[in-house]
Amino acid sequence: MVDKHKEQAFYARGRTTIYACQFDPRFSYCCYVPKAVEEAPDRRFPLFVAVHGTGRLMTAYRDLFADFAERAGVVVLAPLFPAGITGPDDLGSYKFMRAGDLHYDAVMLAMVEEAARRWPVDPSRFSMFGFSGGGPFAHRFFYLHPERLSAVSIGAPGVVTLLDFDHDFWVGVRDFERVFGKPIELDAMRRVGVQMVIGGDDTETWEITITPDSPRWMPGADLAGPDRLARMRSLKASFERHGISVRHDVLPGVAHNGLAMVPLVERFLADALAQPMKKAG
Q: Which residues contact residue 276 at a Cβ distance below 8 angstroms, ignoring those fewer than 6 apart?
């Protein structure tokens, strides 16, 4: 007879199985759980969320951060937001946080709470990294829930929302409270460690150009610049205008390659874990 408790424990350590999110089973997640979790069951571990891009390589990001998880004693959570949720051609609705009544940020927070029920992690604050399609998710989640983040790494986002109170969402945040039901909390954002990371040769624009015939088109769609490098600089400048410090890492000779960013992200996370929580300025 199968020992169900032993079976559950086996698949819930190291590179875990993939779990359906109980809040909304259309979405799922997997984790990397370091050995220290078994060795120190009374300890609470930091949680790090690695958000996939449009290619949905959730397990690849989970696995790439496995060594870091062992060294730093963190649990890695990699969510999956499948394509086709809002229709057969939907590739990117998760990047904008809302799709009708679907709140992607609520799904993300539910995954965090579920992870805390399964493993000894602290769900109150966690760190997050997203590259490419995960970059828009990460910085918009940061706008929505800075009080839940200890650090955020924003990797090469294609379509950015500037911290700009002169333009409506998604270009800026002038009507943010109307769209999302809560205001931008600048003081809370200033308490979060922020990294922006990109390859120095990340100049392709075929995937990120929004033309007037696009469903996402709105005035100001080209405000941040023509390519990811320019858009990241614009995003950084918009943060800094509001007193939010940004660590800007550019990897020379690298194009659009999220896997190559991992060492830079790990250094940022290691520094963030070693720092006490920043106070509002």
A: none
